[in-house]
Amino acid sequence: MFKKIFFLSVMSIFLASSASGLLAQDEIVNGIDADFPPFAFIAENGEAQGFDVECVNWIAAKHGLKVSHKPYAWDSIIDLLQAKDIDMVASGLSVTAERAEQVAFTKPYWKIKQVLVVSKDSPLTLDDVLKTGKKIGAQSGTSDMAAMEAANGKDGTQYELVAYDTADLAAEDVANGRIDAAVMNDRRASEVIAHLQLQFLGYANIPDEDFAYAVNKENTGLLDTLNQGIDELMADPFWNELLKKYELEVKFE
């Protein structure tokens, strides 16, 4: 009788854990882009750093979870999450309708604008870049690349998109004169403008985007924990400290 009760108790716990989506595990793996500062990146010492990394670390500590941040090729990150090779993605991931069909998103925690940058001495106007067949670089596997592809040919636009592994590589090719412009989020643009002697040209012809964390659709427990954690973090002074530390609030003239 004791064995039967014990067995039923264990099964009840297992089923409850399965239903919540939070199965017992040693560590939650967050898949990140290795080169997407300030949201997530691998530093020279080999450690994951960035705004999203610190946010997730804070939430994990608050809820007694262990988390590791591991870099993967960005164009395969959704596939890895669907295959359960990773548990979540917190790395400047944009919410799109296509991705929402594949994974579950938390509530948004940040909004970004996509901007175009050109070389410091470029005479090009926004219309020149968007409507006269110029070469625009974008990071492959990103929502800005997909949105620029979808917008090409509409409202008189005509440009050639060139894919890069990272936004920084696209910016470097702008500085070297290999392409005419690069598209990226406003926060990243503020850094490459300073480091590579580029200039802000204008906002891209695509909508603003929300950043959120993503989990496998079956992992409802982790989704609930992250949503609660985002609310808790935003209500804590540490949130504003992070915004200031990573200089997320950017304005272009």
Task: Provide structural commentary.
- The structure is a single chain.
- The protein is α/β, with parallel strands linked by helices and about 250 residues long.
- The protein has two domains: about 1-110 and about 210-245, Periplasmic binding protein-like II (D-Maltodextrin-Binding Protein, domain 2, 3-Layer(aba) Sandwich); about 115-205, Periplasmic binding protein-like II (D-Maltodextrin-Binding Protein, domain 2), CATH 3.40.190.10.
- It is built from ten helices and 15 strands.
- The strands form four sheets. Strands 5-1-6-15-7 form a five-stranded mixed sheet.
- Strand 3 (about 40) and strand 4 (about 50) form a beta hairpin.
- The longest helix has 19 residues, at about 1-20.
Write a brief structural summary:
The chain is built from 10 helices and 15 strands. The chain is an alpha/beta fold. Strand 2 (35-36) and strand 3 (40-42) form a beta hairpin.
Strand residues, percent: 15-25%
Q: Which geometry do the CA atoms define?
A: globular
- Rounded to the nearest angstrom, the radius of gyration is 21 Å
Question: What is the SS-derived class?
Answer: alpha/beta
CATH classification, class level of the largest domain: Alpha Beta
CATH names the topology of the largest domain as: D-Maltodextrin-Binding Protein, domain 2
The overall pLDDT, averaged over residues, is 90
| N-to-C order of helices and strands | HEEEEHEHEHEEEHEHEHEHEEEHH
Query: Which segments are poorly predicted (pLDDT under 50) over 5 or more consecutive residues?
Result: 1-24
Architecture per CATH nomenclature, i.e. the level-2 architecture of the largest domain? 3-Layer(aba) Sandwich
> Strand order within the widest sheet?
5-1-6-15-7
- Give the N-terminus to C-terminus distance in angstroms: 75 Å
| Percentage of residues in helical conformation | 25-40%
* CATH homology superfamily of the largest domain: Periplasmic binding protein-like II
- Tell me the count of domains: 2
Q: Helix count?
A: 10
List how many beta strands DSSP finds: 15
Report the biggest beta sheet as strand number plus sense, adding barrel if it closes: 5 strands, mixed
